[in-house]
């Protein structure tokens, strides 16, 4: 009963959030200057041409009316047609979403691995020069935002030592016939490690750019929680049982220290997804964020709306996932 | 034959301030020794030194700790850790914080058996069930699957006692194991520790500042003042006629059972001054 109610509440808040995001974007992109019709028509088009196109795209109606039409269609699964690309918005967004998902999940994985390892190492060597060194590295990682890390990585690992590709998602010369848009996953499942290698060559730099600041944040919070746990009595008791410092940190301290970090990762991961917009642009990576920028430049209203809705959905999903993991990991909540 | 023999153990703060001053004490196999002294005397520090859990702020500057005839301090760290885990155990002071909140009870009892002593898991679990019954816990199967926060303080202390006896260690250090509990529970836990100690014939170093408890549980005792053992005797002799003036005052300060509400006399100033002089003289001699 309780679970059902919790789920319903959750669903309701999710819907309200999505609706709110949709309304805000819908209104904002219509009141800012610039309109899609002007962009589509050649110079010298007549007033009549403009009116005709406006009617065609339903832009002659009032904003509330437009919104009502749009939302009714969305509920029926029709997200409209992109003005510039002349394809269904739904197909466009679904086509690009896997690229962005693969990139952000890869970035998250890198951030968790690096940040987590650094926090554990710093705890093991606490109050020594090693901890100091790790702290300094964390501070440096946080001193630049993700897109500047992107530029730095392009300059160093793309230009100075061209070890990585700095543009695109996959080398066209590979001629690999993808059946889905989850390129990396598909290449892995088909054991095409040459393709995997090429994909990683494209994906790692943007993923690292996104991951570096997050890794530093994970390092700082997790290290602090771990160090606090190390003073707890159950840690001392585990020591008397004969456990090594390493296994005490990973086995006894980590499960107790991880919850605050987990919550933080959830929040920060939504920021990271937001960060893909600029990073994808920087690396000409064919994801949702890159498409979003084009859509905004071209005032492609239906496409912008579709993309924003997907981003908002992603954010709420991430939050839901964090809450569920939190409940699963915390025995005190599990039995409450 | 002493199972635990501490010889001239010295522990200092990193800045050189002495916390333990050449402490020597023996616990014979199967014997209960009480360790008494006021707060800050260094009672817990002795236990921590034996179990290898000294805080980072202090260091061991001299002495020997023989466990079962083997000098722990001469062993490489890993061997020492495992030796302590196999032969000694701690019953901690606060049962509310000594169990890991995110792990179930079962693994917290069996972990030492499986990970350090190499038992098979089913055997370790059977052993844990047996021990939980021994410490009078009802439905031990359910308790094994519980998390610490689902259990009362008294239950958790019983679990910690069971866990301490799991590997059949021949030395147990109990650091004020009842002070964090309700008065009614205190008596039961004390009785349980004595019962377990007798059944398993374990040497027990029992840290307390309650002389009333000492007479009930132990055969011998060491009185500690400012990290220095000022009296080491058997319990009968101590209660009949303590040798040191400080011990006498300590005994006088303890309410009698016959008169539990009797006024508690503080240790007189002149006696504190005398024992302080003794400690200072000892330090001066050390620094020569
Ligand atoms: N982590 C630590 N860092 C520095 N000094 C400490 C630390 N722990 C204890 N001490 C000091 O060591 C001395 C002995 O402390 P200890 O805990 O052994 O006293 P105790 O006899 O057990 O007292 P109590 O009856 O209050 O438990 C005290 O002066 C205390 O201030
Ligand atoms: Mg103490």
From TrEMBL, chain A:
Pfam families: BPD_transp_1 (PF00528), BPD_transp_1_N (PF19300)
GO biological process: transmembrane transport
Alphabetically ordered keywords of this record: Cell membrane, Membrane, Transmembrane, Transmembrane helix, Transport
Cellular component terms (Gene Ontology): plasma membrane
Transmembrane regions: 12-32, 105-125, 146-164, 199-222, 257-283, 303-322
The ABC transmembrane type-1 domain, residue ranges: 97-326
Compartment(s): Cell membrane
Membrane topology: Multi-pass membrane protein
Top-level taxon in the UniProt lineage: Bacteria
Record family assignment: Belongs to the binding-protein-dependent transport system permease family.
Name of the protein: Dipeptide transport system permease protein DppB
Provenance organism: Roseibium album
The encoding gene: dppB_1
Automatic annotation (TrEMBL), chain B:
Alphabetical list of Gene3D superfamilies matching this protein: P-loop containing nucleotide triphosphate hydrolases
Every ABC transporter domain range: 4-251
SUPFAM superfamilies: P-loop containing nucleoside triphosphate hydrolases (SSF52540)
Membrane-topology descriptor: Peripheral membrane protein
Main location: membrane
Record's keyword terms, sorted: ATP-binding, Cell inner membrane, Cell membrane, Membrane, Nucleotide-binding, Translocase, Transport
Gene Ontology CC: one annotated term: plasma membrane
PANTHER family with a match to the protein in the record: ATPASE AAA-TYPE CORE DOMAIN-CONTAINING PROTEIN, OLIGOPEPTIDE TRANSPORT ATP-BINDING PROTEIN APPD
Protein's recorded name: Putative D,D-dipeptide transport ATP-binding protein DdpD
Species of provenance: Roseibium album
Gene responsible for this protein: ddpD
